Amino acid sequence: MVIVLVGVALITGSILAYVNHATEGPIAEQKEKTLADGIKSVMGGGELSVAKTDTVRQNDAKGKEMTFIIYQTKDAQGADLGAAVESTTGGFGGDLKILVGFDPEGNILGYTLLEHAETPGLGAKADKWFQKGEKGDIIGKNPSEPLTVSKDGGQVDAITASTITSRAFLLAVNNAYSAFKNDPVDGESGASKQNAKEEGGEE
After folding, report:
1. 32 and 50 in contact (C-beta within 8 Å)?
2. What pLDDT score was predicted for residue 154?
3. Cα–Cα distance, 183 to 69 (Å, whole number)
4. How far is CA 114 from CA 18, 71, 86, 96, 98, in A?
5. At a CB cut-off of 8 Å and minimum separation 6, what does 103 contact?
6. pTM
7. Is 119 helix (H, G, I), strand (E, B) or coil?
8. How many Cβ atoms from other residues are within 10 Å of residue 148's Cβ?
9. N or C terminus: which one in the chain shows less Cβ crowding within 10 Å?
């Protein structure tokens, strides 16, 4: 029995290792394509190339290290277009990772959600809510004055019943801008200051 079990384990392990090896390349290629498409999208579309990639690590006020990846972009003629920045904060359901594009002056060109664990139908609406023409539109804004939700005295409408997610999203945008401009980042968000009780059990 022991020999049979060991044999089955070895065969299963070999199959899993083979499948992992066989799918590793395609998965990596798909991730690269998704990232490339994301960079093009948040930078406003058109022909562009990533001229330089920087990884920036900064500590927030609590000493926690935060990592940002900055993709400096240029157009076909080599002119500076600004940069797309990966930024992560803690949302209502877990990490919220975004990619946000800035022109050379720091104005927001676009954004996309890369990863999130927000509630479907509530916080998950962040992928559309802050886009151009939507209720929480941040496109064209410059976070030199940090973006905040109207509930906190700011000018950005929070996602309905998802203020915590909205605060976390805007913090990720503000921190992305700070990394782009090489300024200190903030570590506080609605997710760390608030709780679900504030919103009647919702976000």
Report:
1. no
2. 94
3. 15
4. 28, 15, 9, 8, 5
5. 81, 82, 109
6. 0.76
7. coil
8. 19
9. N
